[in-house]
Amino acid sequence: MRGNAKIYLHPAVVAPISVIVLLGSINLYLWGWGTAESFQRFGSVNVAASVVLIGMSQTRLTQLVAEGYEPEVDPSAPETHAARVLNRLAQFSEYSLVIWGTLQWGYGDKFFCWFRAGQTC
Description:
This protein is mainly α and 121 residues long.
């Protein structure tokens, strides 16, 4: 593998994606078979996980800069473009998880009742 192509298999990329998929699966489970209270409380886990993921990303970026890592000079290389897209997607996912978790934590019981049960709480 050349240059940035290794980034796809790097734990800093695989771990956040795995955590987001796991949290999404648990949210779907709680949405389908949980209670309004359990769905709301799980929002705090989403917020905590997203804060940890953002911290891990920032730490890894700081380590790469300290090690003198420089991306490929050729910006038109497919690996460089793919790495940029993946980085933007990871950042979007992490910040979206913060927003979703915060809303779920604060209003999860209302979301649950309004959209799943079709009633007000």
